[in-house]
DNA sequence: ATCGCCTGTGTAATCGATTCCACGAGGAGG
DNA sequence: CCTCCTCGTGGAATCGATTACACAGGCGAT
């Protein structure tokens, strides 16, 4: 593969001049410019990003470590992150943690070794020493969706509190009183916050959230199934199951289906994180929708601000409730066929 | 960030010796080894992958350019690719083409600039000059899922022919005679092959595939909706719609639903590419399932073979039919409630 | 005519690693 | 005792870019 020296030789100029043309430095003669450009074209030369990064100490690359690529929420997030980064002149390298702290660490480490300019993380756990050190050590970093307390890192996330209130109001209005939740891992902020928001919203109606009605999941489908089976085995099973993410909702649906029960007639189901597929499930699932694209874009902007020396700001965007049929009577607009 | 020089100074040795310890070169004294390791630990030193790549001319990184991250098929593929690559000591950088040739080129170009060791591509089109040049120019490359004719690049893909035959047999057995297909872009191999396989399978039953029953889609949901509306507007609409990918099947389902029609009673639906969500749609969708994980792993192995000087082999794995309820009477095993 | 400045160019240092080559010490064999 | 190896180590070149610095030539001002 041709290097800058080959181009210089071909153009009959020094590598310095070639470099200047390529980085359009002002003081280059028109003559030199055309000669270099011609040489570049005939050789099919492309600058070596590795060498350039070594010299300039910047890679124009962002790392994104997400918890689970198979979760449509995160893939949409990844897509919007890449889009915004590209618009700002950066590339993105995605690392998938699969909800495993060890894998998360693996990706953070290799990303750091590659000297990425900044890191976007949706932490799977409370934060390994590695990640904490990186954050404190000055690596530009922004948390997205999930975050870690006690580190001075901007957070870009959605606030589901009012949407969860709306959900509980909706459920209460439908006559449901025994409401259960499948929680996410307590090590994640989203795992805890969603339960807290749910409990608070229930409290407003004087409804308690007993331990038996809070199951511990891990944001994966299988745990949703397991927890839901536990709920159904209870002497007095809940009337509603609220899953703290879409994958666990899917598992819950499986478990309910396996018992020959029907949604919403026998038991209602709702989920946090809306995804396109929820429109097409049987029945369509009521969900709290995050502004995923906006989240990804805001996170990139915050990170790039940090990288380029501006002061990044944390951002919190509201989530909203999308009512479908999985909790009972359809919303008025859909009632063409009662 | 500490460099190898700092480690050398801390250990009171030369950079050469430090480097040898780090790459466990045989001729290093035990004494030197422990001193270096101690220095590495106190400084928290991590080798700079950029510098190392520049010197060794290898990045231990694979590029993966996929057509659409939002398609669960491709995200599963990406996951298995990353997994196998990691097992073999490589990292993966994913580029999402969003079914756009210009974006595909953008990603190929930046991956090449980064001097990745090899490229895995599922081409969105017939192949841009850039990609063709790279292939011919000696960049290790393997096509996965889709491929391009006339280039000497190994292909790892699934053969859907017999599964499509099974599908047509299933449909024919259910009494369907007017079968339509939503094709993928003619510029992609999968776009063409799936139509060809379908037409061939129909021919075996003496059923033609008229032009009116072959709609042109682009592998995205919206095109599935549009084409299906066209089918439904026909004086004699088809009894079955077969979508050449899962996203277009989703669009088709939308269009059918919007007319107030029911699947499978009013019209049957089947799809190429099975995904977990198809179990939960209303009704569950009959689909041709690819061995996605195996495909990703085989592709990585072929690419790494090529990179490390062995001779890579093309691989074709069989797809299989998964019958659910979207085409009519459920399979016998599921018939608990007739 | 001289000075200084501006423009365009080249030489060489530099980034952080790897690795070839040279060298000194020590041991084995004659 | 001398020679020859082997082993462990360090010096320095190298990868492909960027960029500080030096410098030559031209031009305007004095």
From TrEMBL, chains A, B:
Organism this protein belongs to: Streptomyces carpinensis
Domain HTH lacI-type residues, every copy: 2-56
Keyword rRNA-binding: no
Alphabetical list of InterPro entries matching this protein: HTH_LacI, LacI/GalR-like_sensor, Lambda_DNA-bd_dom_sf, Peripla_BP_I
Keyword list, A-Z: DNA-binding, Repressor, Transcription, Transcription regulation
Matching Gene3D superfamilies: 3.40.50.2300, lambda repressor-like DNA-binding domains
A Pfam family annotated for this UniProt entry: LacI
GO molecular function list: DNA binding
Keyword Ion transport: no
CDD domains named in the record: HTH_LacI, PBP1_LacI_sugar_binding-like
Protein name: LacI family DNA-binding transcriptional regulator
């Amino acid at each position: 593969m041709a290097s800058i020296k080959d181009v210089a030789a071909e153009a009959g100029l020094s590598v310095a001049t070639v470099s200047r043309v390529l980085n359009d430095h002002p003081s280059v003669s028109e003559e030199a410019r055309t000669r270099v450009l011609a040489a570049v074209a005939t050789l099919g030369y492309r600058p070596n990003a590795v060498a350039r990064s070594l010299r300039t100490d910047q890679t124009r690359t962002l790392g994104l470590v997400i918890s689970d690529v198979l979760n449509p929420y995160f893939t949409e997030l990844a897509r919007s992150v890449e889009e915004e980064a590209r618009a700002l002149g950066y590339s993105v390298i995605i690392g998938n943690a699969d909800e495993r702290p060890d894998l998360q660490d693996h990706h953070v480490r290799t990303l750091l070794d590659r000297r990425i300019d900044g890191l976007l993380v949706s932490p799977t756990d409370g934060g390994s020493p590695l990640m904490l050190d990186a954050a404190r050590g000055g690596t530009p970093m922004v948390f997205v969706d999930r975050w870690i307390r006690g580190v001075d890192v901007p957070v870009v996330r959605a606030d589901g509190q009012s949407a969860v209130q709306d959900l509980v109001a909706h459920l209460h209005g439908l006559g449901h009183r025994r409401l259960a939740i499948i929680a996410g891992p307590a090590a994640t902020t989203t795992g805890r916050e969603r339960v807290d928001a749910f409990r608070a919203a229930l409290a407003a109606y004087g409804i308690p959230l007993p331990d038996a009605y809070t199951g511990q999941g891990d944001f994966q489908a299988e745990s949703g199934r397991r927890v839901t089976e536990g709920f159904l085995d209870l002497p007095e099973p809940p009337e509603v199951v609220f899953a703290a993410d879409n994958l666990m909702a899917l598992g819950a649906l499986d478990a309910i289906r396996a018992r020959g029960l029907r949604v919403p007639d026998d038991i209602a189901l709702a989920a946090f994180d809306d995804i396109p597929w929820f429109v097409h499930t049987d029945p369509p699932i009521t969900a709290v929708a995050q502004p995923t694209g906006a989240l990804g874009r805001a996170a990139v902007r915050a990170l790039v601000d940090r990288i380029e020396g501006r002061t990044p700001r944390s951002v919190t965007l509201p989530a909203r409730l999308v009512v479908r049929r999985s909790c009972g009577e359809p919303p008025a607009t859909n009632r063409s066929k009662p």
